[in-house]
Amino acid sequence: MGELVPGGNLALPDGALTIRVPGPFDLSALITGADGKVAGDADFVFFNQPSAPGARLHGDTLALHPRRLRPDAERITVVVSPADPATPLGRLPVPALTVLADGGVPVARFTPPRPAQETLLLLAEVYRRGGRWKVRALGQGYADGLAGLARDFGVDVADDGPRPAAPAPSPPQGQRSAPGGPLEVVNAARARAGAPPLTLDTRLTAAAEAHAGAMATAGRLAMEGPDGISLFHRIATAGYRCLTVDEHLISGPRTPEGFVDYCLSDAERRGPFGDPAVVHIGLGRAVGPGGDIFWTAVWARPFTPDGLGRLTSEVIALTNAERAAARLAPLTPEPRLTTAAQRHSDDMVARDFYSHTGPEGQQPWDRARAAGAGHRGIGENIACGQRSAAEVVRGWMDSPGHRANILKPDFTHIGVGYTTGSRAGTYWTQVFGGV
């Protein structure tokens, strides 16, 4: 079974598919064509309308028959929301999606990063590519719930409120706003938050503009464009090596002020505006064929060896704090374990995979031995997509298997590796050793 990361994709076998998302969630699906929009209300499958040609919803399970979908269907987007609308997704277990082939054989699994205040999450999509069907992990959230869904997919949502004023005329398709305007608005917001101003980086801007344009072409928000290239691949191709990176992918706001206001309306999106560690920004804005506006903002700090050392030391300090709380001895940093960990993070980015097992079958103990480590016991934790040391350690502690490694009494030494790029943006490795 393939374990997917945000933006990762996997070819699916022919025939019927079953998608399961157990937990306190409402599951729904959107069937869209090449334009990324539903053709009508019948393309929205949810608890009050549980079936459409080729798709049937039953509780936590969505049954799909791709060959029975309407002829021009190109994509089925799987959506989860809290069963209790008053509860943010961040207060619930992380929704885990499993795709099963005909006969109940698991073929793919995806667990997204933990949502925060989002009330709706695009979890994954099943899409047609070259005559075959594939699944792609998304993990894209909406703090404005159904309104955000309607904005991006053309769902008709009843609204008894006053009709909004007509939007300002859109710039011509493909036109992007001049970078100075948005930067000034962003830096004004940072000044109000007590953070220093950012510098517009041409490499990050090139990546952001390319990604905004790709989303506009596809007519939808995604970490990976229709060309199969992720935002983080674009950043690397542009020649910017990040130490830390964060991103905003947003559609809807038509002006820089609207973009910033939307970001500031949510605690998680607001984060980079007050983060003093961020020093560079890249901004891109593009207009889709239907006039929808797509924004990409990349917030980053450039890589330095000292910066990497501070970040990995923070991971070790947080790990040892968890051990101290469990009355265990701290782990001692070990250079050879650090080499093994860093090589694995670098390798996952360079060769675009995410696994404890390397492409040639190497296991954690093989990598530790190749780095010269002679420890009797070896353990490894990996993670991707987390944007800070605190977030990654918290995620490991929330996972029983990873937590067991961190709190294993027999482990005495540790090495930490970290790098940015590929599909998920950040790749973390802990290697533990026991004497």
Q: How many whole angstroms does the radius of gyration measure?
A: 22 Å
Q: Quick one: biggest sheet?
A: 7 strands, mixed
Q: Which fold does the CATH topology of the largest domain refer to?
A: Lipoxygenase-1
Specify the structural class: alpha+beta
CATH class category name of the largest domain? Mainly Beta
| Record field, number of beta strands | 21
In oligomeric terms, what are we looking at? Answer: single chain
* Cα shape: globular
Q: Number of domains in the coordinates?
A: 3
CATH superfamily of the largest domain: sav2460 like domains
Task: Walk across the major sheet and give the strand order.
Answer: 1-11-10-3-8-7-6
Which parts are unreliable, with pLDDT below 50 for 5 consecutive residues or more? 158-180
| Residue share in helix | 25-40%
State the CATH architecture of the largest domain.
Answer: Sandwich
Q: For the record, give the distance between the C-alpha atoms at the N and C termini, rounded to a whole number.
A: 34 Å
Average pLDDT confidence is 87
As a percent range, the share of strand residues is 25-35%
SSE diagram, text form:
Blueprint: E1 2-4, E2 9-11, E3 17-20, E4 25-32, E5 44-45, E6 51-52, E7 55-58, E8 61-64, E9 75-82, E10 97-101, E11 106-110, E12 120-129, E13 132-142, H1 145-153, H2 180-192, E14 199-200, H3 202-218, H4 231-237, E15 242-251, H5 256-264, H6 267-270, E16 280-287, E17 293-302, H7 305-325, E18 332-333, H8 335-350, H9 364-370, E19 377-384, H10 389-397, H11 400-406, E20 413-421, E21 425-434
Parallel strand pairs: 1-11, 14-16, 18-20
Antiparallel strand pairs: 2-13, 3-8, 3-10, 4-5, 4-9, 6-7, 7-8, 9-12, 10-11, 12-13, 15-17, 16-17, 19-21, 20-21
Helix pairs in contact: 3-4, 7-10, 8-9
